[in-house]
Structure formats: C-alpha cells, structure tokens
Amino acid sequence: MVERLLLHIGTHKTGSSSIQASVDGYDDGTLFYARFNMPNHSDAMYTAFAEAPESYAIWRRHGLTRAQVQDKRRAYRDRFEQDLAREDRAALVVSGESMSRIDPAGKTELIDFARRHLGEIEVLCYVRAPVSFAASAFQERVKSGIKNVQASISPGYRNCLETYDELLGTGRVRVRVFDRRHLEGGSVVRDFCTQAGMDPDRVTETSRNESLSASALKILYTFNRTNPCFYGEKSLVRARRQLISSLQSLYAGTGAVDPARFVRHADHSDLDYLRSAHGIVFDDPGLPDNALDLESWLDDFSDVDLARLADLVEAPRRHAGDVAWLASRLYYRHLCEAA
Question: % helix / strand / coil in the chain, to the nearest 5?
C-alpha cells in the first residue's frame, strides 16, 4: 500500500514542465507518478483543494461556472484518493506548481486529506534567485494576458513554503536551488529523479523551453494591451495559445530577454526567511544606478523585425509597421481556423 507521498510544488519557472514531461507515466512497480491524465498536476490539485477554485485563472479564462468547477473538484479528489489508496504500490509522486500557491487553508486540507491514507508526506521545492525569477515570471504573465508592468515581481518564498513548514516540519520540506551548478548532473530532471527516489535510467529526459524571445515578448505585450477579446471561452483561449506558439516560432533565435531589465522589479523581501528556514542564500544585488527601464524597452520596436510578422499575415503596406494590427490579424486568423 502507498506509505509515502512526495508533493513537488514547483516553484513556478524552475523547470517543472521539463520534469513533468519527462516523468509522466513513471511506474517502477514500487513508486508511481500520479494518474490525472495530464503531466502537470497543477490544475487538478489547485482545483481539488483551494478554498475558491472557481477563481483559478484557467477556469475563468475558459468561462466555467462555479458548478462546473465544483464537478471538477470532486473528480480530481476522487482520482487523487484512488492513487493514495492503491495497495500494490508503496510511493506516490504528485507534481504541480500551483500547489505552492494554494491558500493556507487549502494546503491544510490537502495535507489532512493525504494523512487519512498515509503518514509519510514530503514536499520538494525548487527556487531561483529573485532577478532571474522576475525575468522568467514576467514572460509567463505576459503569456497569461497581463497588460501592465508590475512594480514588484515576487517569488513569494514564504507564501509558497511556510504553511508546509508548519504542517510537516522543515525537515520534511526540501528546498533546492534551480541552478545547473547545484543540480545533479547539471539537470533539473535528473536532480528531481534523485530527490524523488525515481530511477533516472527509466526516464527519457524531455526539455521544455517555453520562454519567449525579446521580440515575441514585445509583440505579445502590445497585443495584450490593445486587444481585450482573448478570454472567456475555449475558442478564444485556444486561438491565443496558437498566437503565442506562432510568435515563439517566428522569432525563435532572435535574442533572449536580458534579466538585467528586471532588476528594478525583483522582490528580495523573503531572503531572510529563505536563509533562516531552509539555509538557501541568495544575495540582494541592490538597485544599480543604470538599472534599465522595462516599460520603455517594451514600447521600443526599433530592434524588432516586424517584416516577419507582416509577411506572415500578408499585411497591406499601410499596416506593415502597426504592431497591434499585425498581432490581432494573426490572432483572428487562428480564431477563424479553430471555428
């Protein structure tokens, strides 16, 4: 019977997608990966245990009603309970970044739910330095639809970890630095397998680099601010996802986003907590006099080859330099294809 549960809670932007794609379906006869019919268990676990799952961004974007979300909540809980109750396996691994963002009451309910079946519960969490996190998280938020540059982008170490510390004890909450220099074999997938008790030779490592180039990021950010019609039903969400994929492909290899542009926006307020609770030390670089202005950079298209996008959507000459028009044209093309 299942006696040990490992919850891999991310955090966000620490290679979780690569981990999940690589270990999905893992089962060595003793330890197995949870069976939610999806590699990333974020949606399932957040919906199953958060106090207000109907507020979860993905369900709001899809336009689901509270009743529909509650149906999902029951189904996900049932699936999780079936895995916890297996008598032919000894260990279960669940991986979902959104478990780090569940409210404290929801985290408590999650741990209590699991304890009805087993006593040994551990949490595994990867963290990255604040500036590096800010750069990656901002890209993800632009992909999700934000229209403004946040004054502060926080990795939220305390919010992610403290409740689990209190519920399980810090000895049961393992925190690893997401940095190749500190990872087993320089690979987050191999490091995860070692930490989880999986046999890395049974795993085919899959790399999932979902970052945007600097050019694609600027175009998508402009689209967010100029086209309000990209959420509320599945067809809109699907078309937006295809828009992002097209921009990623179209501007692949054109230059990455410089993390230095996020120095002004990185939140270092939880560094003392991370050091005292988990022995992880990240230095606060302070704010240099020449810190770059992110908003001005996002509005500057002098370094973006808009001709690529204009040619793709067969834009009339008068619109060839209009970023908002070009991005919306591509979006509507994908929307029509999905109809």
Answer: 55, 10, 35
b (16+ CB within 10 A) / e for 259-276: bebbbbbbbbebbebbee
What does the block give as tokens for 87?
A: 């008598």
- Annotate 318-337 with b (16+ C-beta within 10 A) or e (fewer): eeeebbebbbbbbbebbbee
One-letter identity of residue 88: D
Is residue 11 reached through a cis peptide bond, with omega within 30 degrees of 0 on the bond before it? Answer: yes
* Cα dist from 235 to 55, 204, 215, whole Å: 20, 33, 26
* One-character DSSP codes across 151-209: S-B---HHHHHHHHHHHH-GGGEEEEE--GGGSGGG-HHHHHHHHHT--GGG-------
CA distances from 102 to 11, 55, 238, 314, 329 (A): 12, 11, 26, 45, 37
Per-residue pLDDT of the chain (339 residues; tens, 9 = 90+): 999 999 999 998 899 999 999 999 999 999 999 999 999 999 999 999 999 999 998 899 889 999 999 999 999 999 999 999 999 999 999 999 999 999 999 999 999 999 999 989 999 999 999 999 999 999 999 998 999 998 899 999 999 999 999 999 989 999 999 999 999 999 999 999 999 999 999 999 987 767 899 999 999 999 999 998 877 788 888 999 999 999 999 999 999 998 888 988 999 999 999 999 999 999 877 766 666 689 999 999 999 999 999 999 999 999 999 999 999 999 999 999 866
Cα–Cα distance, 329 to 86 (Å, whole number): 51
Domains annotated on the chain, with CATH: 4-202 (3.40.50), 214-256+305-338 (no CATH)
- Count Cβ atoms below 10 Å from residue 180 Cβ, excluding itself: 11
| pTM for this model (two decimals) | 0.85
Which pair of tokens denotes residue 115? 């304890």
